[in-house]
Amino acid sequence: MKKRTKTNQEVEVGDQRFVEFLVFKADPVWRRLDEKERQEGREGLARVIEGCKTQVTTFPYSTVGLKAGTDLFLWRISSSLEVLQETAGQLLKTGLGRYLEIVQSFVGLIRPSVYVKKQEPQEQAVLSSDRLRYLIFYPFVKTKDWYLLSKEVRQGMMNQHIRIGHEYPAVRQVLVHSFGLDDQEFVVAYETNDLKAYQDLVMALREVEVRRYTFRDTPVITGVHRPLKETLELLG
């Protein structure tokens, strides 16, 4: 019997998968081009994304008007870092890509959590192929003192953090491990259809003990998930 091959939409935590959040800013010159050239530019970039979908899973988000200096980001997943790099180069060669600047790029790997024995779908939304309306993500670094604590002490504080997260089922988490590959240790992302519920969760997590050991958790980037055509049209 022929062995079935998993697709990128059927990711398992044990598989090697690289995750990239690629944030772009559009040159204002782009919006001054004639409509025909802009249409061809948008279509060219969309074709690259469509053409590599067997190797790279891409989810588009618009940040137009939401974060100064950014206009969109692509949440990209692949089994190969080289493929992520090569396809990013292809994107930048398109008619639209020539007017896009990469202003942020965060890379990491999907790995099992050391604090959760069995992750629920809420805790690793990257395993899901359906996307919610909003994605909020940021690079995250803990203090050096955190890793000097015993495993038992760290687990106790994380148990409180995890318990609070479970009290907000409308919010899903994506945790990407970046240590050794990028400046941050993790990329933390939250996915939801309810931004108030997400903000309520953030307020609750501000009061947990483990918060003492946060060194950096900015910039925070909020995007709206839209069909690719619609996301690109918002660029002008």
Characterise this structure:
This protein is an alpha+beta fold. Strand 6 and strand 7 form a beta hairpin. Helix 1 packs antiparallel against helix 2. The termini are far apart.
Shape summary:
elongated
Number of strands: 9
What's the end-to-end separation, in Å?
A: 51 Å
Domains, number: 2
Question: Which consecutive residue ranges, at least 5 long each, have pLDDT under 50?
Answer: 1-14
CATH superfamily of the largest domain: Apc35880, domain 1
> Helix content range of the residues, please?
25-40%
- The CATH first-level class of the largest domain comes to Alpha Beta
* Sequence of secondary-structure elements: EHEEHEEHHEEHEEH
Report the C-alpha radius of gyration, rounded: 19 Å
Look at the structure and give the mean pLDDT: 91
**What profile does the largest beta sheet have?**
9 strands, antiparallel
- The helix-and-strand class reads alpha+beta
Strand content: 25-35%
Number of helices: 6
**CATH topology-level fold name of the largest domain:** Alpha-Beta Plaits
Q: Examine the secondary-structure arrangement and name the CATH architecture of the largest domain.
A: 2-Layer Sandwich
